[in-house]
Specification:
Chains A, B: GO terms for molecular function: DNA binding; DNA-binding transcription factor activity. Chains A, B: Keywords: DNA-binding. Chains A, B: This is Rrf2 family protein. Chains A, B: InterPro entries: Tscrpt_reg_Rrf2, WH-like_DNA-bd_sf, WH_DNA-bd_sf. Chains A, B: One of its GO terms (cellular component) is cytosol. The structure is a homodimer of 144-residue chains. Chain A has 144 residues and is mainly α. Chain A folds into two domains: 74 residues, Winged helix-like DNA-binding domain superfamily/Winged helix DNA-binding domain (Arc Repressor Mutant, subunit A), CATH 1.10.10.10; 54 residues. Helices cover 51% and strands 6% of the residues of chain A. In chain A, helix 1 packs across helix 3, helix 1 crosses helix 4 and helix 2 packs across helix 3. Chain A is elongated, with a radius of gyration of 18 Å. The two termini of chain A are 28 Å apart. The relative contact order of chain A is 0.15. Chain A binds a DNA duplex (30 and 30 nucleotides) through helix 3.
Chain lengths: 144, 144
DNA sequence: TATTTTTTCGAGTAATATTATAGATTATAT
DNA sequence: ATATAATCTATAATATTACTCGAAAAAATA
């Protein structure tokens, strides 16, 4: 399951992606419009900022804005920051690999073998889909 | 992440798949060979039995055996029993659908739209892969 | 029929992860 | 100076996962 943390992160990035030419937006503003607990959002935005996706400014008139083109922010990167691995088993993870507790012989593990395929299929979609795509999909869905 | 419950379920089914022509195997035997906590495995096997995948027999000489051809037991069915939904968001689930807490307008949700695609890609693999396939993959991996 | 074996059942607990909150601190603008 | 708004550290609340306990029911066999 996708954590709320990740959903909130995506939603915040979408909001900021729609706010590109405007002055930075405050946490409290984002929290209100998307109905995200403010203090929780605070942590999430900080993570995204530390990962280089957001620009932040303190003090009056401060807030957050995207540090990159929304076309260049892909779901896979966000999810790795907020949820960690994409793979469903740690032994099939590219960026967060570690042995499964239960596993005796990884090299011949049929489960791992299948979930490497699942990971690749998931990864393909998530690394092709950007914040800009999400915004585009939403407007497309409205018009349908 | 795949729960241990699901991994244990798959492992148990694989063991039983290799035991097809033998008399039923006891919980304790499966638990030992696969190093699964016995009481936990007990619950898991019961779920699989109630879902019709296993045959069980009480008393001396009793135990568990597969109720179907290992070629006809697919990962997707096992996972739905042990972990529930395949989709990463409840609103994209076929068998366990429910609204996301956070969601205001499902019909135009770009997140949902992407994760329906992810679900489909995952589903394809999991509904094509059987216990027999896992066993086959393992022997193939050994010979490589 | 008594005993042993093994699954079944209902409940409970422990460990861990997720979600959320609190309060003080630091930076910036006016 | 003062107000604004992000940052930091810690902790509380809740949910989920992993696992345990003890007794009951069913079947075999001696």
């Amino acid at each position: 399951m996708l954590s709320k943390k990740t959903k909130y992160a995506i939603k915040a990035l979408v909001v900021l992606g729609k706010n590109m030419d405007q002055p930075p937006m405050q946490i409290s503003k984002i929290a209100e419009t998307e109905r995200i607990p403010k203090k929780f959002l605070e942590q999430i935005l900080l993570d995204l900022r530390n990962a280089g996706f957001l620009y932040s400014k303190k003090g009056a008139g401060g807030g957050y804005s995207l540090n990159r083109d929304p076309k260049e922010i892909f779901l896979v990167s966000i999810m790795r920051i907020t949820d960690g691995p994409i793979a469903m088993v740690p032994c099939a993870s590219l960026n967060f690999y570690h042995k499964c507790d239960e596993c005796h012989q990884e090299s011949t593990c049929g489960i791992r073998d299948v979930f490497v395929d699942v990971r690749d299929a998931t990864l393909k979609i998530l690394s092709e889909t950007s914040i800009a795509d999400i915004i585009k999909r939403e407007t497309t869905l409205i018009s349908v």
